[in-house]
Amino acid sequence: MRIFFKNRIKLIIFPLLLLFLILSSGNQTVLAENFDYPDDPYNDALWAFDNPGYYTHYYGSFPVTQSSVKDVDMNIWDAWENYPLTKEETRPVVIAVIDTGIDYRHPDLRDSMWTNPNEIPDNGIDDDGNGYVDDIYGWDFYNNDASVCHYIETENGYTVDPDDNDNHGTHIAGIIAATANNSIGISGVASNVNIKIMSLKIHGGSSSSGSVANAIKAIRYAEAMGADICNLSWGTANYSQALELTIRESSMLFISAAGNNGINNNSTPTFPASLRLPNLISVAYIRNDGTLAEDSNYGVSTVDIAAPGEDIYSTLVGKYGYSSGTSMAAPHITGLAAMIYAYQENIYPAQVKELIINTMTPLDALTGYLINPGIPDAGAAIRSLSGITTDTSEPFLVFDTSFEKDEICVHVDAFDAGGSGIRKIRYIYGSKSADYFISDNGSSAILDNVVYLNKAGYYTFYVEDYAGNYQLYNLYIEDDTLVPDFTASYQVAPDYSYIAVHFSASDEDSGVKSIKYLAGEFTGDAFLFAGEHLDPSVKEHTLYLAPDVTALTFYLTDHRGNATTYVIRPEIIPATSLYLNVTERALEYMETFQLQPLIFPWLSTDGVSYISTDESILVVDNYGLVTAIGSGTAQIKVTTHSGISAVCKFIAGSDN
Q: By the 8 A CB rule, do 299 and 265 touch?
């Protein structure tokens, strides 16, 4: 499976026809009077940060004022101005950019790059024992080395290698973390707090392609190395259960680009953006007038929110440039999420997602396109930080065991009263401690709230929420130990030509798997290679036996291997005498009476037949119910199969 993202980086060429507009342009963004605005010279290009109705577009180093719609922005400077902590007071936040590589040498990024504290650079040794040699800034999963970014050295420095383009990831990193107040370039959204960018390259080559397998490896690396947030500015049309499980079970928050195909993700999903998970935010992109871009994907039940993504100025390999798309919108939200994470230690993904959505700025133009039709308001989100609460409630599981043919079916429902969301539900055979599951040492994930087991016994179940609360269950899962139920009866034909055996088999636990029979008396071993099969899905069966068959053995098994035999011994016992409950009876017109024959011996297999001597006066059904339909006298003759008869006289109607 391949992953492709839409790279829309613009190579800016200065047009001579715009020279007059450029030289005459004098408008600059009006800064907040009470805010110590960072000194980065190109911040007036960042309309997503603050939009007074215009912004500066740079053609090389030449500024041109572009019009926009006032206040279509994320209020980043407002968030900085009201942030309750200094940068030094904020907790470290690590952001994994899983993308192309990142220019870690860039003067606006080098101070914001994550470095592996337990790895010695360029010694060819895996110092920290994590399986990756010299992974100083992260890892290049595309080329399977520590190169991270691919350069071409020039006389004036370096430029991007076109055969392995790393501009996309570098652009994203700059949006999030370009160093503020260094008198060059721009400020990143979250460069006011203590953040570091981990470079995890999964896309490469001239076409910037990648694989889901490498994405999963990168996520696991980020988790193991302590990242808090993953920026995923890529997508695929192919669903991967492994990718969904990896994201769902991660403790990190994922910000995912919705895609740049102009399609509805409800009907044509883009993954991972279309996954509905508590630790994932999917992002569309807007233009600077507040409208959804024509090529932005959308989805009223699949895309969470939008963010600025048009004409975004940020870092490229060795320089700066513009790009547009959901790839640029996602890191704006990633940067805001990083500011929220930096506030305190015990923040969890669903809390950050909820805070961003609850404090967003609604935009009418987005109604009907997104789950939450608006863009984040970073200022409002930061002013709400004091309302963040902790989740200290343990999640819990409720179990219900049934059987589905050959397997034990354990339904597992998870509940999280604390609100952080269920991160992980796992199980393993035997009794284990919580440490076993925290390290994911061979346990199995529970998908769709159901587990299918082959054997009974003690199992350990583990549930954890995104706040780190967990609970352990040691359960004995019982097997189906009961044999199938069997009921049977038989009837002898009136002329003794056959015996009809009626029977039914049932098993309320695992269900009847097999029914076999043999004429005669046998043990279960006889059915190993013999016996006639019957359809176990049929509830009731009838077999017709020759009158000389004296025994019939049934062999039944259920889906859990329980087996039993049942023997029926049909016997023809003719009647020797017959009596009726009355011998004479008067009936009114349309009155009924039930004749009851008494046959001896009691175990006789004979049935009886009923005949009216005058059906204009009396009628009788096959069960001996007599009805008077006229006037007069008539008889009902009752005869056993063996030929013994008895008569009852009835006086019906006016004649009585």
A: yes
Is 645 marked active-site? Answer: no
Are both 75 and 178 inside the same structural domain? yes
Which member of 106, 150, 168, 171 is catalytic? 168
Give the pLDDT score at 206: 83
Q: What is the mean pLDDT of residues 499-512?
A: 94
pLDDT tens-place string over residues 313-345? 999 999 999 999 999 999 999 999 999 999 999
Q: What is the three-state SS of 211-268?
A: EHHHHHHHHHHHHHCCCCEEEECCCECCCCHHHHHHHHCCCCEEEEECCCCCCECCCC
Please report which helix (H) or strand (E) contains residue 171, including its range.
helix 167-177
Distance CA 139, CA 475 (A): 41
More confident of the two residues 36 and 440: 36
Is 206 noted as a catalytic residue in this protein? no
283 and 344 both lie in a single domain: yes
Q: Which tokens is 234 given? A: 């890529």
Residue from 40, 44, 73, 99 carrying the catalytic annotation: 99
Residue 33: band (very low, low, confident or very high) from pLDDT cuts 50, 70, 90? low
Residue 411: active-site member: no
What per-residue confidence (pLDDT) applies to 447?
A: 86
Instruction: Report the CATH number that the domain containing residue 184 is assigned in CATH.
Output: 3.40.50.200
The last residue of a domain, from among 344, 360, 387: 387
Q: Which of 274, 327, 510, 612 is catalytic?
A: 327
**299 compared with 405, residue with greater pLDDT:** 299
Q: Which two tokens stand for residue 310?
A: 């048009």
pLDDT > 70? residue 5: no
Cβ atoms within 10 Å, residue 591 = 15
**Residue-wise pLDDT tens digits, 548-557:** 999 999 999 9
> Is 288 exposed, middle or buried, given 0-12, 13-18 or 19+ CB atoms closer than 10 A?
buried
Task: Supply the DSSP string of 588-605, one letter for each residue.
Answer: -TT-EEE--EEEESTT--
CATH number for the domain including 559?
A: 2.60.40.10
Diameter over CA atoms, the chain: 132
Residue whose entry in the numeric block shows the structure tokens 């097999």: 514
